[in-house]
Amino acid sequence: MPKTASEIKETWKTIVLFLLLLTALSSIGYYAILKLNPTSIYVGLLMISPALASIITLKIRKRPISNLPWSLKELKYLKLSYITPLLYVSIAYVLIWFFGFGDLVSTERITKWSNELGIDSANQTLVIIVMVFLLLTVGVIKNLGSTLGEEIGWRGFFIFELRKVMSFKSLAIVSGIIWAIWHFPIIDLMYGNGENLLLHMGAFTIMIIGISVILAYYTFKSNSLWPAAVYHSIHNIYIQKVCTPLTISNDNTTFWIDEYGLMIPIVTTIFAIYFWRKAEKENL
User: Fold this and answer.
1) Taking all residues of the chain, what is their mean pLDDT, rounded to a whole number?
2) 12 in a domain, yes or no?
3) Which terminal residue of the chain has fewer beta carbons within 10 Å of its beta carbon, N or C?
4) Separation CA 136–CA 139 (nearest Å)
């Protein structure tokens, strides 16, 4: 942390500038998503807003873009960032299926996958194995472009600035809350016409704060933004493209499934407590 009042003041100026630029750039993305078509391309615009905000902030503050933690010296954090979301998402969905909040497996999804792969849908196991493998390899790499746009800003820049004026615990929570709020317009777009908007926003916020603890840990330990980008990509693909599509919904599913239900936030919170204590022991 900075030792002088002047350094602290300058850091806060940088943080506020980043957040103002992020708000302005994200507003353009959200307007485009809500008002224009097709929306998919504008989601990409939204996801690169944190990166653009951080780069513009560095330029205004006369700091080189090379200051961002681009390098990666230890591959083990890249491996751990790949494995961790696979683990907690798997645990969450096994619990969902076990308690009957959703059933495995959606034959409709398998039929769709079989058509995409050109494999006979009668061989369900092969279809699932091949598609899941491709999604968790090729799909993750393709998705990295979008998640990198977020992680350059959130983990590559924002939490390093917060670290100058906050403890690990504080910056993990603050960055998580801001990151969650940044997603609220999307959640409102998805669930705004229903009765459970606040539940979905609350569940998502709890999940995001938990993930922010884990991502801050991996980012600071590796001194690199790449583990966070990989983690983010795996998290998105495994939930959105694998586990949720394979689950058959019932009356309780909406309260428990996906990033906006309760199960993943519960599991990620348990994981976050582990990393929280680990960071404390290691004086991170």
Assistant:
1) 93
2) no
3) N
4) 6
- Of 276, 275, 256, 277, the closest CA to residue 266 belongs to 256
Taking residues 16-44, what's their average pLDDT?
Answer: 88
CA pair distance 74, 226, nearest whole angstrom: 11
Q: CA angle, corner 59, sides to 54 and 63, nearest 5?
A: 95
Please work out, in degrees rounded to the nearest 5, the angle formed at the alpha carbon of residue 130 by the alpha carbons of 93 and 111.
Answer: 75
pLDDT in tens, 159-201: 999 999 999 999 999 999 999 999 999 899 888 777 889 999 9
Both tokens assigned to 125: 């196991």
- Does some domain include residue 59? no
Report the 10 Å Cβ neighbour count for 215: 30
Task: Name the nearest CA neighbour of 97 among 106, 87, 86.
Answer: 106
- Angle of helix 5-35 versus helix 40-47 axis, rounded to 10: 180
pTM for the structure as a whole? 0.93
Distances (CA, A) of 173 to 61, 72, 198, 231, 279: 26, 25, 20, 18, 14
Judge whether 113 lies within some domain: yes
CA distance 54 to 24: 13
